[in-house]
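User: I'm curious whether this sequence folds into something compact or stays loose and floppy. Could you predict its structure so I can see for myself?
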Amino acid sequence: QVQLVESGGGSVQAGGSLRLSCAASGSTSSIAGMGWYRQSPGRQRELVAHVARDGITKYADSVKGRFTITRDNAGNTVVLQMNGVREEDAGTYFCNAGVFVAHPLGSLREIWGQGIPVLVSS
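Assistant: Here's the prediction. I'll summarize afterward.
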């Protein structure tokens, strides 16, 4: 089975940088894509960044040009480099992985990390 362990959350000054990491363990060969989501009071959970199995990345409009998501060659670790952090970036960040399941063939099961806080000070 796949488990996700997140690290790198914490407090950062507005305009600063933060690096979030998510390490997958278990049946990692079954992972399709991985990404980061965030949620804060008054806002719905939103996709921050995602990297698919083929390496294609996707970013929320609000973070384009500031955040970068990368994935190691084995596909076991995904890193979100957050630069030029703004107050709006504060929230709880969740790592996500889409895992292939045998039945139905080709379907994905969503696996989530526990969530880590990102605090932004002005």
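Summary: The chain has no helices and eleven strands. The first strand starts at residue 3 and ends at 7.
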